[in-house]
Amino acid sequence: MIAVELGKLLRSRRTWVTIALVDALPTLVAVLLAVTDLGPRPGTGPAFLSAVLHDGTLFPLAAMAMVLPLFLPVAVAMAAGEAIAGEAQSGTLRYLLVRPVGRTRLLAAKLVSVMAFVMLTVLVVGATALLTGTLLLGHENTGRTISVSGTTLSTGQLAERTGLALLYAMLSMLGVAAIGLFLSTVVRTPLAAALGTLAVLVASTLLLPLDAAHALRPYLLTRYWLAFVDLFRDPILWTNVVHGVLQQGAYVVAFLTAAWANFATKDITD
Amino acid sequence: MIRTSALTKRFGSILAVDAVDLDVREGDIYGFLGANGSGKTTTVRMLLGLVLPTSGEVSLLGRPMPSAAREVLPQVGALVEGPAAYPGLSGRRNLAVLDAAGAGRADGRRSRRRRIEEALDRVGLGGIDGRPVRAYSLGMRQRLGLAAAILRSPRLLVLDEPTNGLDPQGIGEIRTLLRELHAAGTTVLLLSHQLAEVEQLCSRVGVLDRGRLVLQRELEEICGPTGRIHVRTPDADGARALLDGQVEATTSTGLLVRHPDPGELNAMLVGRGIRVEELTPERRTLEDAVLAATGAGSDRVARP
Predict the structure, then answer these.
(1) Interface residue of A4, A10, A16, A95 to substitute, partner B, most B CBs within 10 Å
(2) What pTM did the predictor assign?
(3) Does ipTM surpass 0.95 in this model?
(4) Which member of A225, B63, B82, B172 lies 3.0 to 4.6 Å from B68 by CB, making a disulfide possible if both were Cys?
(5) Shortest Cα distance, chain B CAs vs residue A50, angstroms
């Protein structure tokens, strides 16, 4: 079943169009930066963006910081919302279940498929950004990169930390995927599941800067998403990264359990 | 093949299926009748493990459902409430995806191409090109759904309105296909509200009315003789005089006579010089039996 789902994912035109759209934003930014040579003033704009004018190898991180708050979660919410509700809407869910495909197995296959989509998107965005960054942007890379803390990082360190940052971004998206998958087992249409997931995301983004919501802050879905910037301090500031991993892990476990509990005993009447 | 005991499903305050004891035996073509909303589809969904019963039990091929779904369902082919397919994929690709999705026979993978082509041939789609299912007509989708149901040569076929959307010729083809499959040993549970179709195909009939199984018998018993014989004769007056007291009604073409033996009746009439043009034992129709057993369908909402 997992192989079937992955096959469907890779053959689907929608997968590639979505990835291309997500990828288009950082590429556009790279072109604009290269043409105008105008970076954001230090301290403003997405993380790393002022640095990439000098060093294009940092652009994958800038690209990640650009797509992570909205573009990527929207794509993930749509993919996850489609998972069960989409099959139910098209009527194929009942035929899969009487084939038979076990309900737990189907849910697992859908999760793997959504995660594969996330990995694919992150990798494509990262690779494109590395390409556009090195081709179009700063060439002052002398094998050393200035970290966020002002010290220098070797290329090896940079590669290692970029890898960690991409993994961290994927984990953050796994939280979104878990919520989307849960809602996909609850509602009847994929659109409702995707919008519900986005509602959680938007609520979290709105509550985050609100002082009155201070007590809720550590539990908000998006609280630690941009903590991957801390991986580029010297030494690495682990506190928020570790909190983020634990928090996303908790979201994933809670919502996947809820999705399984709901779906395993659900009456399929679509 | 299928046996349920006191099978009940309640959706909130609505009792959709009420203590149904279904009994489909091996080798039956079982016609499962009922008005719209009588609970047929919910019952079938419970048989297949899609809907969980509120109470009661289901046994499919001798094993309890839904707990034995993994062992039982590979031997069951189903068409539940209309066909469904991935609209962007071709018919062949849809069958391949569905076949690959579940575990099955050990040689499932190697024989897949052959089985897909065979199934498509049998439902009359053998020459279909690679166009996506999105571009199929209603009848083609219906045929593709049937192909998916027979793909793994199931022992039991559960078909919900299999001829929906087909033209008369297509309906005839599907009827022939079902007869062939049945002759090869497949048991069929056929859901329908087309009484004529059921009368032509089925050996056994169950009728559901507002969630209750109100009739479950051999078709032969249901449509048995009524004990009356229709006699068409130009000498109606002579016949009436002769059969005094046995004539129950006069029709435009002849007489309706209560008599136990058509042969004897014929011999007697002819012996007395009465010309008999036609002599037919009256039979109960399935329609009479179903109407007698059921009330109005639930899609009729009258004012209180």
Answers:
(1) A95
(2) 0.86
(3) no
(4) B63
(5) 44
